Amino acid sequence: MNPLKLIKEALNFFRHIYQNKYLLYELTKRDFRQKYAANIMGLAWAILDPLAMMLIFWLIFGLGFRGGRKMDVPFVTYLISGLSAYMYFQGTLSQATGSIKSYSFLLKKVNFRVSILPLVKILSELFLHLIVIMIAVVIILFNGILPTVYWIQIFYYIFCTSVLLLGLSWFTSSVNLFFPDISNIVNIVLRFFFYLTPVFWDPSIFPKKYLMILALNPMYYIVLGYRDSLLYGRPFWHQWQMTLYFWCFTLIALIVGIVVFSRLKPHFADVA
Hints:
Blueprint (H helix, E strand, L loop, with lengths): L2 H17 L1 H16 L5 H24 L9 H23 L1 H4 L14 H26 L11 H25 L3 H15 L11 H7 L3 H15 L7 H25 L3 H4 L1
Helix pairs in contact: 2-6, 3-4, 4-6, 4-7, 4-8, 4-10, 6-7, 7-10, 7-11
C-alpha cells in the first residue's frame, strides 16, 4: 500500500471513531452485557477466574518452587501485577480475533465502519481489566507497598497494550474470516508466550544474552512496566531502549494490520 494511502486510512479511522463515538459506546456496552451481565454471576466469574489463577501460581511458585525465598517485594504483588497485564492482552486478543465474525450481521450495512469492531472488544475487555487493576491495587496496599506518583504510569502501559492489541486484532480478525484456524493458532501462541513473559519468573535469573532474546517479546516491556509503576516506582523512560523497541514493534503491527485489513475488507461480506 502507498504510504500516503496508509496514512489517509489511519486518519480516516480515527476520524470515524470520533464521528461514531456514540455507536462505539453502545456496541461496547452491548458486548460487555452479553458476556458478563447475562446472568447474576457473569461479571463475578470473569473477575474470579484471574484471581483463581493468581492464587494457583502463588501457591505453586510463591510457596512451592521458590520455597518461600524473599524478593524485593512480596511475591503475591509481583505475580498479580504481571499476570493482570498479560491476562488483559491474552483475553482481549482472543476475543478481538473473532470480532468481525461475531458481528457479521453488520457487514452489509453501507455506512458502517467495520474496522471499529476489534476496538469494541478491546474497550469491553478494558473495563474488566480496570476492575482487576483496582483489586490488584488493594492487594498491593494490603502488602505494605505505599502508592507513589508513578502509579499514574499504569494508564500509559494500558494505552501501550491497547494500541498493540488494535494493530494485532486488525490483522487476526480480518484473516479469521478466511482462515478460521487462526483463532486456534492465536491461542497456542498466547499460551507459549505466557511462559516467555516474566509473569511469575524474575528476569535476573537469566544471563543477559538470553534476556536480549526474551525482551523481543513486546509483552516483556508491558509486564515490567506494570511492576515499575505499581511496585518499584521507576519512570517509564528509565529503559528508553525498550520503550523505543516496543513502539517500533507496535507501529509495524499497526501498519501490517491496516494493510491486511484494507486488502481483505472488500471481501468480508462474501465470506461472513
